[in-house]
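hey so u asked for the seq, here:
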Amino acid sequence: MKIEIFGALSHWFIGGINYTNLLLRSRDIHYCICCMQTDWKAITKPEDLRLMMKYAKIGRLVVAVCTVFMQSSILMYCTGKAVTKETIIIGNQTKIIRMLPCAVYKNLIPVHTSPTYEIVLTTQFLSGIIVNSSAIGAIGIGAVFAAHACGQLTILMTSINEFVNGPKDQKNNDGFNNMGEIIEGHLKVL
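ran it, structure tokens below
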């Protein structure tokens, strides 16, 4: 029982840390989002647009799978614990106790009475969803940024291949400009 309580409490505690970290890094996140917007506006070739769309779809897919998996897991855990009942036999009396996802309130307030149990259970359901939402937000932001960086690096690789395999007379005319643009793009992605 104590291990179950520790698991649930650590989940809520780490979720609070995730949320705090998102709040503290909000300026950095905003800066990265602005850079992504700039990258999307700078795309001129249709091939580059297709590549960026491909990686954006991959990022969205990762976020969607993560969201469905994490939210359904917390809802199933909370529902499973709420449906579970524990039977306690004391002398000639049998007492059926409904379980909570995180039973830390047992000694503090009478959670086995009717309105209190429902209020505490609803609060724990909502807090589980909120905690998971902050974790999903952090994972989602990371996945979208990583997918965007992969798209930008793929575009840079295409530019490098075009520069290396292009005609020699074109390299002599504007080779330094193209190479400079490639290097600037690479530094920006990093």
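Helices lie at 2-24, 26-42, 46-83, 114-165, 168-189. The two ends are 47 Å apart (CA to CA).
lmk if thats what u needed
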